Structure formats: C-alpha cells, structure tokens
Structure of Putative signal-transduction protein containing cAMP-binding and CBS domains:
Amino acid sequence: MTAMAKQVEDFLNASAPFDSLDKEQKQQLIKHTELIYLTADNVDQVLKDKVALFLIQSGQFSVKDSDAPIQHLSEGDYFGYANLIEKRNFPLSITVDSPGLVYCFDARAVEPLLEIPTIRHFFDGLSNNSLQSHAIADSNSMWLYKGLLEVIEKAPVSVEAQTSITVAAQLMTSQKVSSLLVTEHEKLIGIITDRDLRSRVVAASLDTHLPISQIMTANPAQIMGNRTLFDALALMTEKNIHHLPVIDHQTLVPLGMVTASDIIRHQRGNVLFIIGELSKAENLYELTRLSWQLPHYFSAHAKKAGDYDIAGKILSQATDIMTRKLIGFFQQANGKAPMMFAWLVYGSQAREDQTMGSDQDNGLLLAKTPTEVQAEYFSNMAEYVCNGLAKCGIKLCDGNIMASNPKLRLSLDEALEEAKQWVKAPTKDAIMHFNIFLDVRCAAGDVGLFKQLQKQRAPLMQQNMFLAALTRHSNEISVPLSMFQKFVYEKGRKEKDVIDLKTRAVALINNIARIYALADGVTLPNTLARLEALSARSQLSKRDATNLSDIWLFLNRLRWRHQLENKVTDNRVSISSLSSIEKHQLKAAFKAIERTNQAMVMKFSGGVS
C-alpha cells in the first residue's frame, strides 16, 4: 500500500459512515480517491466538471452544492452528496476561506455504497438536515435485557458421560453448584441437578458407581450466549425448569449455566424493585439506605441507549416517592397539615429528566395565606423534607429554589399575583429568575389546588409580550458551533475539548418546547411530551418536533453515558470521547437546534433578539 493510500485509509477509519465499511469496500473506495489541496487560486480549475463526494480534512470553505443556503464547512464535513443522492447536476460553488486538504471520492465508487442502508441513511440525514439517530423504545426493566454473558459468573462445571454418579456428586459439592453439564467431545449432551440425585439416585437406591449418563436429562433445553436474560427467563418459564445451560452460538461449546437463583438475584437489583421498596420504607433511615442504591443500580445496569432514555424518568419517579414518604413521616410525628397544600417540583424533576447531578427544586402552594402557627408548621415540614431529600442523595439547591425558602411557600392568591408580575415586567433578570418555575408539576398533596393555579395563570402566560421576552432570553444562548461548523469548547476548563451539553444544547430544546407549549396552552412539563402534544396551530411542524425529540434523546444519552462511565455529575462531555458518527450527529443536532430557535425568534418576537 502506498503512503497516500495508507493516509486515505487512516482518515476513512476515523470518518463516519465509511468507518463501518469492511476492508474490501474501503480498498475499492481508496482506489477511486484523490487528495487535493484547495486554494482560492486553484479551486475553480481543480473542481471543474468533477462529479464526486468531497470530505474536508483541513481548511474552511463556503459551499453551495444544492438548492439549500450556502454552508460554511470545515474538518470532517462532506459536500457534493446532494447531487449523488438526487442524481442531478447542480453546479458546485466554493469560496476558499482558508486553504486546506479535501478528499475527492469518485461518484462511480460512491454510488454502489449508497445502496448500503447505513451509508444511505447517513447521507439522507445530512441532505435533510436531520439527526442520523432513532429513538429507542422505553424499557422499564433494564435488567431483563442484559446479555447472558454479563450474567454468567462461573465457568461451566461439566463432566464426561462415563463419569460415575459418586464422582459427579463430589464435584458438585466441591464446586458448590446445584447442577452439572454432561459433555461429549466438548459438546453438551445432558444435564443433572441436585434434584436428580435425590429423586433418581437416593430415592431409587441406585448404584452410585453407574455412569452419570444413566440419570442425566438428555438433550436438555439450552440457550445461546448471545441472547438476553429475558430470553432465558421466558424459556425457563415455558419449560418449567430451574437450570438452563448457555452455549456458544458458533462453537456450541457450553459457556455456563443460568439458574433460577441468578434470575432472582438480578431481579432484586432491578430498579423497579428498589422503587417498590422505597414505597415500603417506614422511616428516614430505611428511605436513605434504599435511595443510595439507585446510583449503584444505574452504574451497574444502564449500558444501552434505551436505558439512558428512561433513566431520568426513573430518578424523578424515585424522588417523587421520597418526597411523599418524607411528608408522611413528618405528618406522623406532627399531625396533619392545617390546610390543603400542594408540594410543587420544578426544573428537571418536573420534566422527569433528572441526572446524577440534579439538585432539588421545589416549593409549597397553600390553599390560603397561613396564620403564624400554620406558617410555622409548613416551615418545619419544608425544612424536614428538603433536608431529608439531601440525605437521600438529592442535593440542596445552590440557588435556594426550595420550599424551605419562605419566598417559595405561597398561597394560591399570592402565586397568581406573582405570575401577574412576571408577565407585567418580564425583564432580563426576572426571566432568568422565574424561567425554572415554568416547568412545574405537583408531586404530593392536593393536585386540585395545583390545577387551579395552572388554569388561572394559563391566559397570562400566553400574552405576546411575555412570550417575546422568553424568546429573546432563549436566543441569548448560542449552540457551540463556529461559523465554519467547528465545535466551540468551554473556556477556562482543565479539559480542552469539552462542551456542556446541558447548558449549551439541552436547555435550548427545553426552552423551545416550553415556549411553544405555553403559546399552545399545553400544560405538560415534560419536554418530549410537550413536543408530542403541540397542535397544528402551534406552527412547529410535526417533522421539526420529532427531530427535536430525537435530538433531545441523543443528547441525553451522551450526558448519562458521560456521567456513568466517568463517575461524575457534570454534563461536560469530551468531544474526543465520541465516535466519528456521534460527532456528525452532534453537529447536525446543534445546527437543527439553531434553525428551530431562529424560527421561534421570528414567530414570537418578530425577529428581534
């Protein structure tokens, strides 16, 4: 291989989607690849009449290769794909802003590759300005979808068919196992269990010097090692068995055994089991002990994209339960509340998208202005609950957005008056303060009281001046991409290539969903639910809403993976830790967020930012 070919291969191996090609496919592409150095002086001559796909290795270029607006591109970006996908001949116009190297893949070599679904999907995504990612369906039982190779803890304990019953029983005792695999030429032919020894040997007074093949269950049910714990559970239930051999799906050599005890052990680690136990906690000590199992559960079990999709919802549900239990403990010791109240949660808990680093944001809504004695009761309750949540791992809010703050304990009338003031004077500082209160949910107490608040302040929140102020505030946050589509990293950080995905991207989607929801009269606090519930009159197209939902899920997965793999609670994801396709997805995500945000500015503030 020439030095040039090796250079092309190395770059392809790090460039989605071609990094997914096999060796032969890459070699064919390399044979039809040219590396060119583009400058302002040679660009017109070099690219004249050239029908190809282009991939930028270095430099910055302003490109128009379709009916779409001019794109400002840099390292890792493609252009020229629209002509190949749409089979047209749109003239290529390039302005060289900074000279650089560009790979030129001949169209005849690329076109066959576009028949590969993953390759086609990637370039269709670029062409349609959409994220090359699909949401994965929710799963309420992560543990069930563990691969069996993650579950098997011991190497297989096996004997040959001619082994005596006595030797087999001694081996089971020494290895502390309740079953043995019987093999012949390393292939599984049978199984014996401690139950077989009781019923077929001891109860029948059978000679223990006989070979184990006399009492084994021949040709037992078995499962391939590439299946999941759920598959094993389903088969064991169907066959009414407690021991299931696991074999290699290629060599058919036994890998180990899954037992009913394994299923029970993993089920007890299931997050739904932990949440169920939280509901049964009878005191603060039990509640605290159980709550601290949640981080360990996520670290051990959340491995796939679908796990991350529901992790925030699970954490929020658990925090809701903790809150209700703490209120119950307080009332057991201090008597019932002197009036109806609603415990409100804000921000990430309200949206049900908590992460390992989320703090608590909450408040109290009271049916009426309390007397001094009543106020003291609610003050003590709020203090107890907030401190109790902190002991359970939901840290106190640095901004003091908690019910323990007297300003966050309001009567219904006071809360409505506060909303009127928000709308009357939506200054920049005011919006920064009350934005979090627009994502709100009742986690405990009188839901009817909360619904009264929502119903009475909904018309206020739909006023044009208020929506315009919220929009202008949202527009002050920019996605971390430069003019030439390069990532803009956080400044003043020890890590040199990190982006805070929460503040620079997820918050923007939350803002967009919130503003469109307020305008449309949608009262749901969850971002994905808001996007799904928007009506046609909201003017956010179904396609854009779906794309934002996919992007939100994608960003959320990156945040959760970062936190669990690095055992941190921040949202500063290192770009170098992402795969090539994830980098492309992230750029596409940022661009889509920016476009949607600008459209929102035009709709709600007349383009004034």
Notes: Residues 132-141 have pLDDT under 50 and may be disordered. The chain has four domains: 3-128, 148-266, 270-462, 472-606. The longest helix spans residues 305-334.
